[in-house]
Design a protein that fits this description.
The complex is a heterodimer of chains A (about 290) and B (about 375).
Chain A lengths: L1 H39 L2 E3 L2 E3 L5 H8 L1 H34 L5 H8 L7 H12 L4 H8 L14 H25 L3 H9 L4 H29 L3 H6 L7 H9 L5 H30 L4
Antiparallel strand pairs in A: 1-2
Helix pairs in contact in A: 1-12, 2-12, 3-7, 3-9, 7-9, 8-9, 9-12, 11-12
Chain B lengths: L7 E12 L2 E12 L3 E5 L6 H9 L6 E6 L2 E2 L10 E4 L11 H5 L10 H14 L15 H13 L5 E5 L7 H18 L2 E6 L2 H7 L2 E6 L2 E6 L1 H6 L4 H6 L4 E11 L2 E6 L3 E5 L15 E4 L5 E3 L8 E12 L3 E8 L6 E6 L12 E6 L5 E3 L1
Parallel strand pairs in B: 3-8, 3-9, 6-7, 7-8
Antiparallel strand pairs in B: 1-2, 1-4, 4-5, 9-10, 11-12, 11-14, 12-13, 14-20, 15-19, 16-17, 16-19, 17-18
Classes of the chains: A mainly alpha (about 290), B alpha+beta (about 375).
Chain lengths: ~290, ~375
């Protein structure tokens, strides 16, 4: 009895210690969310807000072709980004986990080096690299590889994919690395012992066991990139614009916050649904992982 | 099948494995026979696991050669070798169920699904796990995991099953039971088993032959009985069971054997058959005698080949046995004597004067 009481007291103290942070986080997360959701049911009336509850914003958000186009484009771009990022991250994580025996920490540290510069500056640097008179075009022209500058690399969806994939690579590498590190090496030896060559072993053991990391990486990259608006704005041109840019416009220049809110809530719901599908599919693919 | 009469299945010739300047294995020569239960016994770091991994193909020797079934194994990867391993951690695939685990290796062979299922069920029956095929890996107990790992190796019908400390993760009672079961199973299917263990009792119980290894070298390779009764070096003797060492000096060598003076017990002649051939009698400085080869005589009338006086300095009571520490009147370190607690024998208190009986046949000579 005394022990239970003691535990209770400890739990209470833990909650007390935790509560300022938890409260702060909850407030900062929940308050804007509640605000956005509430806004989405109101109507902008020039400079005033009509607070009568209505579904008109959602009707518009889901029926106007422009929003649908932007939403699909955002999803498409971020899915391509996610696929590219995870596919590129996996070999790096694999190499780190299986082939680096010394100074693993240093390697991990080096992977995070890009974070030392601001995200904005990194996006600008891609502009410098990919531009009409940029580093890449100049270099290729100089060596005579091309006759006129490549234009398909900047101010379109390709540039957005390239930039985002680079920016999010570490976020994909780390969870995959952790999942690979957790694989008991004797399982790989057992697979080999039972007749598997390197490729079969990878498909039958390494990949299924790395699946939790792959799913985590997929979600970590997919969810934020759908809503990214800096990269499409800076390197995306007009055909690279995404849903977040439209939301920003609605809250700003278009002065229609309720519609912006409805778009935001809609894309949140769509992203949540897509993430859930990916999560469940990945779980099925990865099998019954303990 | 008497294992001793079978032909060799694994030949190790001058197998050496170095890691930098460190010799993990130094010129190992051995032949493992078909159908025998062979153990590699030694303390951790003696190279026994390295040797097992070389045989499995997870590692290649720095120099020397390994052949299995007459085929040289150099350059042949683990997945192409006729060996299967039971890992220390069992290495049960966590994302597969029991049947998928056991059938894992069969899917690389040209077998139908039904044939695989039948083989898997047969293998599971062999290890007493009928009907466990659908269980998830994490639902298994330690003992069951061990059986699944064994079934997974046996289903491949390998020439040799390699076992890397397979019982070390089990509790004592289960371990004792599995030792007997594993031995019985090996004898009934007749496949060669190579066991790596640091547990001398386990090796003695299960093996046909044991190679005792220290620091990358085989110190002695013999049957359990020979190893226990006739250890060749002091190190082997003290690694396997308990051995009392007493200082001795060489006196003479004749047709009747080697005569030595044991400081604490007196002069004794050891018949030629009991003297190791490799031993140079002149270098003898120690003899060994096992605790159960010494007897505390209950009265002076009890017969004994030879006897010596001493006094009890300590007792450890084990229920069925009592271990006495006895200081012999003739000097030397105190000796350990084990006595069965048979009817009529009481446990002697410390300080009791005793007469210790012994015989020449139980004396082991060391240099």
């Amino acid at each position: 009895m005394r022990m239970r009481l003691g535990l209770d007291r400890e739990a209470r103290r833990g909650l007390l210690l935790l509560s300022p942070t938890a409260g702060y986080a909850l407030l900062m997360l929940a308050a804007p969310l509640v605000m956005v959701v509430t806004f989405s049911f109101w109507t902008q009336d020039y400079l005033d807000i009509d607070t009568t509850l209505t579904l008109n914003n959602y009707r518009e958000a889901w029926s106007e072709p422009i929003y649908r186009v932007l939403m699909f484009r955002s999803l498409r771009i971020s899915l391509i980004v996610t696929l590219a990022t995870v596919l590129l991250a996996f070999p790096v994580a694999y190499f780190l986990s299986f082939h680096v025996t010394q100074r693993k920490a240093l390697w991990l540290f080096l992977i995070t080096v890009p974070f030392w510069t601001s995200y904005l500056i990194r996006v600008f640097l891609w502009k410098v690299i990919l531009g009409f008179n940029g580093v890449l075009n100049t270099a290729l022209l100089e060596v005579g590889f091309i006759e006129k500058p490549l234009t398909f690399i900047l101010y379109n969806a390709n540039a957005v994919v390239l930039t985002l994939a680079h920016a999010w690579a570490p976020f994909a590498i780390l969870p995959i690395f952790v999942a690979l590190e957790k694989i008991d090496r004797s399982l790989l030896e057992a697979a080999e012992d039972l007749g598997d060559g390197p490729l079969r072993r990878f498909v039958r053991v390494t990949l299924p066991l790395a699946m939790p990391g792959v799913i985590a990486a997929t979600l970590i990259v997919l969810i934020p990139t759908v809503g990214d608006f800096i990269t499409p704005r800076l390197v995306g041109g007009t055909e690279g614009l995404m849903i977040a840019n439209m939301i920003q416009v609605q809250f700003g220049k278009a002065n229609n916050a309720p519609l912006g809110a409805a778009l935001a809530v809609s894309s949140m719901v769509i992203v949540a649904a897509v993430s859930l599908v990916i999560y469940l599919a990945g779980k099925k693919l990865g099998g019954k992982v303990e | 099948m008497a294992p001793g009469t079978n032909k060799g299945i694994i030949q190790l010739s001058d197998v050496t494995r170095t890691f930098g300047a460190f010799y993990a294995l130094r010129k190992i020569n051995a032949e493992i026979r078909e159908g025998e239960f062979f153990s590699l016994l030694g303390p951790s770091g003696c190279g026994k696991t390295t040797l097992l991994r070389l045989i499995a193909g997870f590692d290649e020797p720095t120099s020397g050669a390994i052949s299995i079934g007459g085929r040289p194994m150099a350059g042949i990867a683990a997945n192409k070798r006729p060996t299967n391993m039971v890992f220390q951690s069992y290495a049960i695939f966590p994302h597969l169920n029991v049947a998928e685990n056991v059938g894992y290796g069969l899917t690389t062979r040209k077998l139908s699904k039904a044939e695989i299922a039948a083989e898997v069920e047969k293998a599971l029956a062999m290890v007493d796990l009928q009907g466990f095929g659908g269980r998830a890996a994490h639902e298994l107990s330690g003992g069951q995991r061990q059986r699944v790992a064994l079934a997974r190796a046996l289903v491949m019908r390998p020439k040799v099953v390699l076992l890397d400390e397979p019982l070390s993760a089990l509790d004592k009672k289960l371990r004792d039971q599995m030792q007997v079961e594993l031995r019985a199973l090996q004898q009934s299917i007749g496949i060669t088993f190579i066991l790596v263990t640091h547990d001398q009792e386990e090796a003695l119980i299960m093996s046909d032959r044991i190679a005792v290894m220290f620091e990358g070298e085989i110190a002695q390779m013999a049957s359990p009985e020979q190893l226990y009764r006739r250890p060749r070096t002091k190190r082997v003797a003290s690694f396997i069971g308990v051995m009392n060492f007493l200082p001795a000096t060489f006196v003479a060598q004749g047709d009747d054997g080697v005569t030595v003076d044991i400081t604490a017990l007196g002069r004794v002649t050891i018949r030629p058959g009991m003297v190791p051939e490799v031993l140079n009698p002149a270098t003898i400085d120690t003899i060994g005698i096992r605790p159960e080869m010494l007897t505390i005589l209950s009265n002076d009338a009890e017969p004994a080949e030879r006897s010596a006086r001493g006094s009890v300095t300590g007792t450890s009571y084990y229920g069925d046995m009592t271990y006495y520490t006895v200081q012999l009147a003739g000097g030397g370190d105190p000796v350990t004597i084990s006595m069965r607690n048979t009817a009529g024998r009481s446990v002697l208190p410390s300080g009791s004067p005793v007469t210790v009986g012994w015989g020449a046949e139980s004396v082991v000579l060391f240099e």
